[in-house]
Amino acid sequence: MKFGYWTPVYGGFLRNVTEEGMETSWDYVRRASVLADRLGYYITLVPELYLNDRKGIEAPSLEAWSLSSAIAAVTENLRIMTAVRPGFHLPTVIAKTSATLADISSDRFSLNVVSAWWAEEARQYGGVFASHDERYVQSSEFVNILKGMWASQPYSQKGSFYDVEGAILSPKPRVAPPIYAGGESESGREAIASFADSYVTHGGTPDELREKVSDVNVRRQRLQGAEFGEIGMAAYVIIRDTEAEAQRELERITTVDPDSPGYASFEEFRANSNLDVELSKREYSVGTRGLRPNLVGTPEQVADRIREFQAAGVNLLLIQSSPLLEELERIATDLFPLFD
Fold first, then answer.
1. Residue 270: which of 323, 202, 197 has the closest Cα?
2. Helix or strand or coil: residue 199?
């Protein structure tokens, strides 16, 4: 099992807890990045959100691509997975930016292609917000242009969303940045199996992940001739010395307030996504269904649960936990040795 974590671009992960002691600043992200690099974390996911979906749209949030470049510059081994929404970018420009980030990071850079869900954010920032299935057509064209420009030149492609004619990219990345992507609908799984190197998903139960891993690997074998390199899952982790302590923390963070600033974006996420499980108000508390895997308890209890996901085919955990600095240290100290 590889252990990664979410970079806190929005001042924390909890919708029901206003102040988590995680300031929305480069200084906090820098300290978390350097700490995670020292502790041996494998990768950090840098979410791309122009509005804050955890604390409310008027709360501060940081920009993913600037952060990714800075994280690369202050770390040595930590891999960086930067989220990109095709509706907000030109693929030719992202091909160029990614090649530069691959150079800065000594090939530790990768992309998480996200097919978007937030109509209000797209309205405010001028993003293209196509229908659900069309967003995956757009993502497929987007990635094809990235891969084409990384591999050859001049590069040309005509499609429904993008036309590229004779594009030059130099210098090219020494190694093409890996592509991660996630989706749960029929159209999403089929598209991702055709263009992605690795599959990432929101949290679920071991049985749910077993079905999902099997399905997407069969699709990728059919479309690309091999299974996915990595299967990653988002998970919120609570580790304490006793199970009772862990359950008290879980209760604290899951007391839902429908008047909280982030509740509106949660309702829009449900309306604009085609998900394979019903979201509960409890799962709203941290987003990405991070509590559904139930990684809550003593280190030994959490390790046993993680092994169930390993058996289901998951080999990368993308952890959220709060406050991040303290919990990164706790998880590395108490959990990592159980997987040596």
1. 202
2. strand
What are the DSSP calls for 256-319, one per residue?
Answer: --TTSTTHHHHHHHHHH---SSPPPHHHHTTSTTTTTT-EEESHHHHHHHHHHHHHHT--EEEE
CA distance 201 to 181: 8
For residue 278, the model assigns a pLDDT of: 47
What's the pLDDT tens digit per position in 77-124?
999 999 999 999 999 999 999 999 999 999 999 999 998 778 889 999
Per the prediction, the chain carries an average pLDDT of 93
**Mean pLDDT confidence for 268-276:** 61
Which CATH number covers residue 254?
Answer: 3.20.20.30
Q: Which helix (H) or strand (E) holds 332?
A: helix 324-334
Which amino acid does the sequence have at 258? P
| Contact (CB, 8 A) for 64 and 112 | no
Which residue reads 């097919």 in tokens?
Answer: 115
- Bridge-based pairing state of the strands 163-167 and 79-84: unpaired
The per-residue pLDDT for range 187-237, each reduced to its tens digit, is: 999 999 999 999 999 999 999 999 999 999 999 999 999 999 999 999 999
| Angle in degrees, 0-180, between the axes of helices 26-39 and 64-74, rounded to the nearest 10 | 50
Q: Which residues contact 244 (CB under 8 A, 6 or more apart)?
A: none
The answer, yes or no, to whether residue 274 has pLDDT greater than 70, is no
> Is 205:292 a contact under the CB 8 Å cutoff?
yes
| Domain span including residue 274 | 2-339
- What is the count of structural domains for the chain? 1
Closest by Cα among 64, 109, 110, 107 to 89: 64
Question: Residues 190, 174: contact at Cβ < 8 Å?
Answer: no
Q: With beta carbons less than 8 A apart as the criterion, state whether 134 and 202 touch.
A: no
Q: Distance of alpha carbon 86 from its chain centroid, rounded?
A: 15
Distance CA 116, CA 88 (A): 9
